[in-house]
Design goal:
mainly beta, 18-stranded antiparallel barrel
Amino acid sequence: MKRSIVLGLFGLLIVALAAPVYAQMEYKFSGMVDTNYFYYRNIFKAPALYGTPTDQTGTGTGSHAESWNKDSLQYTNTRGRYKFDVSAGKDVSGTLFFETDATRWGETCTGYNCAGRWKADQTEVEVKNLYMTFAVPYFGVPVPMVVKLGVQPVAVRPEMVLATDGAGAVFDFNINPVALEAAWYKQVHDLDYKTNNDSQSFSLLGTAKVDTLTIGAYGLLFDMRTYPFNGGTSATTGTSADPSFKSDMWWFGAYSDGSLGPIQLKADVAFDYGKVKPFGATHAYEEVKYQGYATRLRLIYPWERFEFMLLGLYTSGPDAEDTDTNGLPGRTVADPAAGATKKSTNYRGYVVPPGSEENSSWGENAMDIVYGNFLLGRGPDYTGSNASLMSRGAIGGTWTVQAKTGYKMTPWYKISLSGAYIGDTTKNGNTLGNARRSNGISLRDDNDIGWEAALMNEVQIYKNLKWDTIFGYLWAGQALDQWGTGANVSPKDPYLAGTRVTFTW
C-alpha cells in the first residue's frame, strides 16, 4: 500500500512539474490558397543564359511549337501553402511547410505539380521546409546566437542573388548594432565515399542600422565539385551535359534599405566571379571564366493617397562570341561565323546560382511581362531559372528604367499604372532573342527589348480575401526577334491579361 501511495505521489509530481512545460507550447497554423487566370500572346520562359528555344517560331516540336503569334494562349492554375509552427517558449521552435500545385487546370501529367488533373487524387504534397530554430544557451559568451537546422528558406539578397529552399545550417549573431548571419548548405551529396563529387555553399551576411537606413553586405561561395548538379541532361538546352565539370563561384554585394526623409529607398550592387573547369583525363578544354555585375536603385515617394516609384536597373550581358548558352567548357559558341571553331572561354554576363528563384522575388518591383509581377503567381514572363546550372535569372543581360504611379481610391481599392523601357546588354547577340545576320549564321546584336506599360488593380474584398487584376502590353523591339526557317521572324507585340484571387489565413 505504501509503495502504491509513493508511486502515485511520484506520478502526480511528474505531472505537476511537466504541466508548466506543456503549458508553454504554442501552435500556429498559417497558409494561403490562390487561383490565377492568364490570357496572353508571345510570352515564353527564357531559361537559357541568352537566347530562347527555336520552337518559339512555330518550327520546332517543343511545348511552344505552333504558339507563335497566337492570341488564344491561356491557362488557369492554383497553389496552396500550409505552414505549421510549434514553439516551446521563446527559445525553441519547429516549422513544417507544405505546398500543393495545380500548374494547369486540366493538366494530363501525374504526381508532382499535377493536382489540376481531372479526378484529382494526385500525389501532390511537397515539403518546402522542415527545420528547427533554437537560441544557444548563455555559456559565458556575451554574443546572443540563434541556430536554424534543416530544410529551410535560403536567402542571400533574394531579389538579386539567391532565393530558394535547401538543407543546411544557419547561425545568427546579434552584436549590437551589427547583425551577422553565417550559413552552410548542401546542394549535392554523392556516395559517402565520393566526397569529391559533393557540392555545397557558404555565406556570410552582415547588416547594421544607420539612422533610418539598413546597410548590408554579403559574400557567397558555391563550391561545386560536380557541375551541372544533375550530372546528366541539361535543363537549359535539353541536350546532354557532360557531368565531368566543377566550379567555384563567388557572389559579393552591398545594399541599403530604408528611408531618406519621405523617400523609401532600395539600392544594390552585386558581382559574380569564378570559373567552370573540366576535370578528368578525357578533357582538354579550356576553363570558362565568369565575371558579371548588377546594379539597382528603387525610390518610392508616398504622398497622401498617391505612391510614386522610380526604378533603374543595369546588369552586364555576355559576349556571344566568347561563350555558348550555358558556359560549359568545350562548347562551340552560339552561331559562330562560318568555319569558326572557337570554344566557350569567357562569360561576362550577370548570373545567379543554380536553383535560385530570384526571378520570383524580383517581381516585387512591379514589372509585368519581361520581369514578372508581384501581383500574379506563376504567370508567363521572360524570366528564367535553372535547378542545375547558373542562369541569367530575371535580370541578367538587361537594363531598364521604370516609373509607376499608384492611387488608393478607397481603403479597399488601389489602382496603379507603370511604364518601362527595357534594353539589351548582350554583345554580338541578344539576351532574349536569337536573330541572325544576313549570312544566316552569325548572331545579330540589337539594343531594344521594348517599351512596356501595365495597369494594375488591387481589391481587398474581405480581410483575408484579395482580388488582383493586371493588363500589360509590350511594344516589342528588335532584340526579341527569333530565327525561324531560314529567316528572322518578328513577334507580334506580347501582352498579358491576368487575374488572381488569394485567400490567406
